[in-house]
Amino acid sequence: MSVASAKDDGSVRVSPNQRMKIIKILFAVLAALWALALVPKLLAGISQSGGAFASSHIMGSVAGILIASVISIVLFRSAFSK
């Protein structure tokens, strides 16, 4: 099965299913990057744990990382299933 089929005029035709797969992969990559972007925020919160609201800062970062990771995993699995 090819990802795209070429027409005689040189343009590429992508089926709706393949287009949805590409969109899912793009959003999964963005969610993974979001999770990675929260790691420095988590480390900064841990190193400055003596300040006010430090525990909520750390827990917010952990929750964001978990949410972004779950979104990324679900989108990757649905894009590559069947």
General description of the model:
The chain is mainly α. It has one domain. The chain is built from 2 helices and 2 strands. A hairpin with a 5-residue loop joins strand 1 and strand 2. The protein is elongated and about 65 Å long. The model has no long low-confidence stretch (mean pLDDT 87).
SSE inventory with pairings:
Layout: E1 5-6, E2 12-13, H1 16-47, H2 54-80
Antiparallel strand pairs: 1-2
Notable features of this structure?
82 residues, two-stranded antiparallel sheet, mainly alpha
Summary, kept brief:
This protein is mainly alpha-helical and 82 residues long. It has helices at 16-47, 54-80, and strands spanning 5-6, 12-13.
Q: DSSP helix count?
A: 2
Uncertain residue ranges = none
| Tally of domains | 1
Q: Please tell me what the overall shape is.
A: elongated
Average pLDDT works out at 87
Order of neighbouring strands in the sheet with most strands: 1-2
**From the helix content, strand content and strand pairing, which structural class follows?**
mainly alpha
Distance between the terminal alpha carbons, to the nearest Å?
Answer: 12 Å
